[in-house]
Amino acid sequence: MDIQNVHYLNIVLGLGAIVLQITSVFALFLLFIGPKKNFFLDFIDKHYLTLGFLIALISAFLSLIYSEIIGFLPCYLCWYQRIFLFPVVFIFGMAAWVKDRKVVKYTLPLLGVGFLISVYQNFGYYFADAGSLPCDASGVSCYQQLVSVFGGYISIPMLALSSFLALITIVLVAHFYKKPARNAFSIADAGGED
Prior knowledge:
- The protein contains 7 helices and no strands.
- By secondary structure, it is mainly alpha-helical.
């Protein structure tokens, strides 16, 4: 790929990441603070298997394009994130195929660990001194700015963080949306049984 096409790809992915971030924050706000019933969360809840599969597939596919076609070698933190992202593609894919909505307990731990690694990498990328980053001896650096668009806001670590945030948001909406609120009285009335 030539430099111009890579630049356009970075801009398109940067816009996509910003859209994912805005919609994720909006969905989390609606889920925990907003009205109990709304169209946006209904849509996510109804289509969460397909949305999760598409976001995970596109994220995994694009990470491979960056490393295998464009030639941006991943640092070891990126590899760790891939370890937790790639299985999610197959889990969501199979769940969407058989329409099994009970994949939260399988995907949330993977997404949670990948998200924490991504937060750590982003913190180091944007705020730490380059000498303090935990990069290996292969020469691939977590600090290297291979993608930098929108004033440096969008980078490869930010793209990964956006994907993990969106996937976690989808799973949380699918798990918590439209669940009856439980309190001490309803548990006591039911004899403490679930």
